[in-house]
């Protein structure tokens, strides 16, 4: 039997390409092992010279200053890269922080005892016996002037294609939670809860929305204090968290989206405890407000022109002597997070932001023109195309995990040679790498067994 101790699905992405380079078993998930495998793969595939950015989750093994894989990959390539922390991972950490503090801490790979109880009871429940939050006296006032906008947003996004079934499920549950039937003219239906890994994107909020609406009728019983906390988490999700989640894959708007989310968290008055917990988590993951990565915002077509003019001026401002740790923005010592309540994106730009354009090999002549004229400039158009090709979520690598797991059980029946198995995985990925790219991005994820 082929046991997976630590497997690294590795993709390279560019304009129109998501190519699996390999999914090898590593002795451990250390930064050294990961970096060595990545460097080997990109050399083997002949794309090392074209790598401009790397995307991954943010554990210390990937992002540690001295021994993290991302930094060691830079050393191996002998140049700086743009680091794009997986935005779904960042957002999931916020939710995990809320659940761990307000509901229950997961002590196993599964999400938790409460969710396991819902799963066990599901088949015996009356799935028509629920109430939406719009009939919950604890939620009515908060939702009164917000519901219409949230419903419109969720309904619009439900019409779009989604790469994962749980992304659709979450939108469906959001609408049901707000008293809307997303299945019209058919009746409301629920997907049965399944066993969920504690690392699964959005598994917690899917369960919490479900528990809330069935607990209101007593169809599913929950302790009052836990239910009250679940209600607060759900209100935070639909009002503040939903839109950032479904725009997480857009690299150009990532800096502005993260700053807006941070400010919304700081200004969230419905439940001060939610604001405190979410802010404490998010302040450690301001990757897209880093002085280099914030360069993405120059291509954010929703930013006001005046803001972009200020950003151009800020490119001349010297980098402060006390700079952030590797690849993420950190407030200076003894500076409170609330100091970011009223700042704009230009606050994070300085002369180090010029490195973004250098790493991405961009012609910056458009910066000499007024931002109103940028869309007409060939240099801006080319830069925008490069930015839009970047991956700032590692869902593609998560699909690589699923690919490897699907074939793991039959590996020995297919071939006993590791190299042949790697070739099989690449063929199953269905997209062949052809030629090189002006810029490419590495996307990686780990899983253990």
TrEMBL record:
Name the record gives this protein: FH1/FH2 domain-containing protein 1
Gene source species: Frankliniella fusca
Lineage of the species this protein comes from: Eukaryota, Metazoa, Ecdysozoa, Arthropoda, Hexapoda
């Amino acid at each position: 039997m082929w046991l997976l101790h630590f497997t690294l699905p590795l993709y390279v992405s560019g304009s129109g390409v998501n190519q699996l380079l390999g999914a090898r078993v590593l002795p451990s998930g250390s930064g050294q092992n990961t970096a060595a495998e990545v460097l080997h793969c990109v050399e083997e595939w002949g794309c090392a010279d074209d790598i401009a950015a790397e995307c991954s989750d943010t554990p210390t093994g990937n992002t540690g200053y001295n021994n993290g894989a991302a930094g060691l990959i830079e050393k191996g390539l002998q140049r700086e890269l743009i680091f794009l922390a997986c935005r779904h991972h960042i957002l999931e950490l916020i939710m995990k922080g809320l659940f761990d503090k307000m509901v229950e801490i997961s002590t196993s790979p599964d999400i938790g005892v409460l969710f396991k109880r819902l799963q066990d009871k599901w088949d015996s429940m009356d799935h028509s016996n629920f109430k939406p939050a719009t009939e919950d006296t604890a939620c009515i006032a908060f939702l009164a002037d917000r519901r219409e906008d949230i419903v419109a947003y969720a309904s619009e996004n439900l019409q779009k294609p989604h790469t994962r079934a749980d992304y659709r499920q979450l939108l469906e549950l959001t609408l049901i939670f707000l008293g809307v039937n997303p299945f019209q003219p058919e009746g409301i239906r629920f997907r049965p809860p399944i066993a969920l890994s504690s690392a699964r994107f959005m598994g917690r909020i899917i369960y919490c929305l479900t528990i809330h609406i069935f607990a209101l009728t007593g169809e599913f019983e929950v302790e009052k204090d836990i239910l009250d906390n679940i209600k607060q988490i759900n209100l935070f999700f639909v009002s503040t968290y939903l839109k950032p989640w479904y725009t997480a894959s857009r690299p150009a708007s990532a800096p502005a989206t993260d700053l807006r989310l941070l400010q919304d968290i700081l200004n969230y008055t419905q439940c001060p405890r939610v604001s405190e917990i979410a802010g404490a988590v998010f302040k450690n993951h301001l990757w897209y407000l880093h002085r280099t990565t914030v360069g993405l915002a120059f291509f954010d077509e929703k930013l006001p022109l005046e803001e972009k003019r200020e950003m151009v001026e800020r490119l001349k401002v010297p980098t402060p002597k006390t700079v952030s740790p590797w690849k993420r923005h950190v407030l200076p010592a003894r500076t409170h997070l609330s100091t970011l309540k009223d700042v704009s994106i230009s606050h994070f730009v300085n002369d180090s932001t010029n490195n973004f354009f250098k790493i991405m090999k961009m012609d910056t002549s458009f910066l000499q023109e007024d931002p109103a004229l940028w869309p007409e400039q060939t240099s801006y158009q080319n830069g925008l195309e490069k930015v839009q090709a970047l991956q700032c979520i590692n869902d593609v690598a998560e699909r690589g995990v699923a690919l490897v797991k699907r074939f793991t059980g039959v590996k020995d029946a297919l071939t006993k040679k590791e190299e042949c198995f790697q070739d099989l995985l690449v063929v199953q990925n269905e997209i062949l790498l052809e030629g090189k790219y002006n810029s490419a991005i590495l996307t990686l994820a780990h899983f253990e067994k």
